[in-house]
Here is the input.
Amino acid sequence: MKAVTLPFRLKAPNLCSGNVMTFQEHHEARVDRPLDDIDLTEFFRDVQANVRVGDEVTVCAFLDNKWEVLMEVGTVRITEQLRRNDGNRAETRAVWMGEIYKLPKHEQREVFEAGEKALQIKKEFAGGFTVQDDKDAVIERFKTRAEAVDYVARLNGKKTAPQAVL
Here is the structure.
């Protein structure tokens, strides 16, 4: 079996028009991944009929597809749309306008204020680790297991993480 990496593409339900104009419209989009993980050459492929050259798209990156925790915001400008007559798919090109704004990271979310929560650390297929509650809701993401263990220890009021494997 051969493994193929599929590029991330914006889907129509996650793009909406902020204001309807004859040119240079403003759109809003939402994604469930970091913005620096997006390849703009593939990003607009499935929604290229919805955007035109000159349009501006504000992209909001959420922690997951529950759309509850906003992590980053960036602005993209559509610079070119190549229409092809040779049977190949058309291409939409875009560029980031300015820097990606990363919202301040919260050390402790309100989830923990209402008493005791059972937490578990899970390894992700794409790499890294997540701290999840008993309902499998992702609380926080980390690159290493040690960071995740330390985070859980800080929530419990301990200064250092225990050395036990979770």
Notes: The chain has two domains: 12-102, 110-155.
